[in-house]
Structures are given as structure tokens and as C-alpha cells.
Specification:
five-stranded mixed β-sheet; binds S-adenosylmethionine; 10 strands; Cobalt-precorrin-4 Transmethylase, domain 1; alpha/beta; Methyltransferase, Cobalt-precorrin-4 Transmethylase, Domain 2
Length: 263
């Protein structure tokens, strides 16, 4: 019987955010760990999280290389190479744990790898252990709610540019801008121009020992500086004019509860 390819979500960097289910899976000594890295020179951030958690890898573990590129052919080649690396182990009945930074179903390489493996052998199961993603952890660290009551939220990679983000603005109370590194200066100009700095938070490598956070006007300090690929922006659109709520979960007529202090 074939082994299972597991997507193990590790949370965004703080080992305390590894779920109990992931932790239990990582205790198994009979599995093979694989983890993504951009190149042989760049250490795997996912592997670093488990090392910082004090978890010892099983005897068999290896890095899989996935280049940072939009070139579809190069990416497909990398997914195929990775799938061909894990397939013999899976066919030999071994369980393979693919370590994922954040949540394994959120902008993660795991989905591509799982699809490629299943295309080569549809008997292989590829379940995910869900985890904490970078943007909810970032909201917690920045002490800002991700969403409240009827708030609308958009989570978008900044790759589509400032004009795409601008188009979303009228409809969303919270914008989560992922992969902001390549256009950070343009985004900062836009936040300033649209008077959005007040409700904005930049968070880099949330949960890691070298985490950095900038809120409000502090974000201006980042202009022209180099930031990590692992950084994002939370933008709260505090002055958004909302449309009428047609039907919500709250009854319009219900009075607010009166809280009285008791001795
Ligand atoms: C390929 S996505 C991975 C998302 C991840 N699977 C998750 O659930 O959050 C990479 C982008 O996620 C964001 N990101 C991931 N980890 C982060 C971290 N520790 N701190 C800040 N942003 C992070 C950044 O915007 C980065 O460019």
C-alpha cells in the first residue's frame, strides 16, 4: 500500500503556533521530511521553524528546490522534479511530510506538488494539516482585528500592482497585501496619497526571532530599504463608506446588552 504525502502547516514562524496535530505528526520517526528552499544557498524557512521548535528530524530528510520565478515552464519542471523525488518513497509505503511555513493551503507550494504527485499516481493521498497563516498572526502581533462584524476582507498578492489594489479599496474594510517586497515603495506612496497610513501595518518574518513591525507613519521609514520576501501589509480602510447591510446576523431591533459591574 502507498504512503501518504502530508502537507504539514507549521505556522508563520513562532514554534508556539505549530498546532497539536502537526506536532504529533512531526514526532513520528518512520516518516521522511521534505521542505522547500529557493536555492541550495538559501536555508529553508520551514525547516528553520521546526529546528527552533526543538524538533529533531527523522533519519531521512531532504530539501526540495523551488526557484522563485513566474516562468511557468521552470516551475512545472521544479514540481515534477520534486514529485519524482518523493514518489519512490510513497510507492514503497513511506509517509512523506512536506513542511510548510504558515498554512499549507494558503499560497503554498504544497498544492502544486500534491497535484503533480497525484497526476503521476492517483492512488497517493495528499491531505493537509491546517495551520496558522501569516496574516492572522500578523494581525495578532500588530494588535489589530483581522475582521469584525460585517467587515469585508480581501487577501491579494501585491503582484498585480497598485492600480489593482486601488480598485479593491471601495469594497473592503481590511486589505491583506501579500508578497509586497517588489512594489513596497509604490505601495507606501499609495498609502500616503490615500490617507491610509494610519490604519496600516507592515510585518516582516512574523514570529521569527528577527521579526520587524512598522505601523502608521513608521512605514515611511521603509522607503528605499530592502525588506524580506516574507513580509506583508495589513491595511484597515477605516474611512470606508459602506453600503447598506441587507441582511446580517444581528437583529436590527435587538438592544445592546447592558453590562453592570457586580461587587
Ligand atoms: C508563498 S506565500 C506563503 C503564505 C503562507 N503559506 C501562509 O499561510 O501565510 C508567501 C507570502 O506570505 C507572506 N508571509 C509568509 N510568511 C510570512 C511571515 N512569517 N511574516 C510575514 N509575511 C509572511 C508574505 O507576504 C510572503 O510574500
Amino acid at each position: 500500500m502507498s504512503g501518504t504525502l502530508w502537507g504539514i502547516s507549521l505556522g508563520p514562524g513562532d514554534p508556539g503556533l505549530i498546532t497539536r496535530a502537526a506536532w504529533e505528526a512531526l514526532q513520528r520517526r518512520d516518516t521522511i521530511w521534505v521542505y522547500p528552499a529557493r536555492s541550495g544557498k538559501t536555508p529553508s524557512y520551514a525547516f528553520d521553524i521546526v529546528v527552533r521548535a526543538g524538533l529533531a528530524p527523522p533519519p531521512e530528510h531532504t530539501q526540495l528546490l523551488f526557484p522563485m520565478t513566474h516562468d511557468g515552464e521552470k516551475l512545472a519542471r521544479a514540481w515534477l522534479r520534486a514529485a519524482e523525488t518523493v514518489l519512490p518513497w510513497l510507492r514503497a509505503g513511506r509517509d512523506v511530510l512536506f513542511l510548510v511555513e504558515g498554512d499549507a493551503s494558503t499560497y503554498a507550494t504544497f498544492g502544486h506538488l500534491a497535484r503533480t504527485v497525484r497526476a503521476l499516481d492517483d492512488s497517493i493521498a495528499t491531505p493537509i494539516i491546517a495551520g496558522v497563516n501569516a496574516f492572522t498572526a500578523a494581525c495578532a502581533m500588530a494588535d489589530v482585528p483581522f475582521a469584525e462584524q460585517d467587515d469585508t476582507v480581501a487577501i491579494v498578492p501585491a503582484a498585480y500592482g497598485v492600480s489593482a489594489v486601488e480598485r479593491l479599496l471601495p469594497d473592503f474594510d481590511t486589505l491583506v497585501l501579500m508578497k509586497v517586497k517588489p512594489i513596497l515603495d509604490e505601495l507606501i506612496d499609495w498609502l500616503e496619497r490615500r490617507a491610509l497610513l494610519d490604519g496600516s501595518h507592515f510585518i516582516e518574518r512574523v514570529g521569527a526571532p528577527d521579526e520587524r513591525r512598522y505601523s502608521g507613519a513608521e512605514i515611511l521609514q521603509l522607503r528605499g530599504t530592502k525588506v524580506s520576501y516574507l513580509s506583508l501589509l495589513i491595511v484597515k480602510h477605516n474611512h470606508r463608506i459602506r453600503g447598506e447591510r441587507i441582511k446580517g446576523c444581528l437583529k436590527k431591533s435587538s438592544p445592546l446588552p447592558i453590562i453592570t459591574e457586580t461587587a
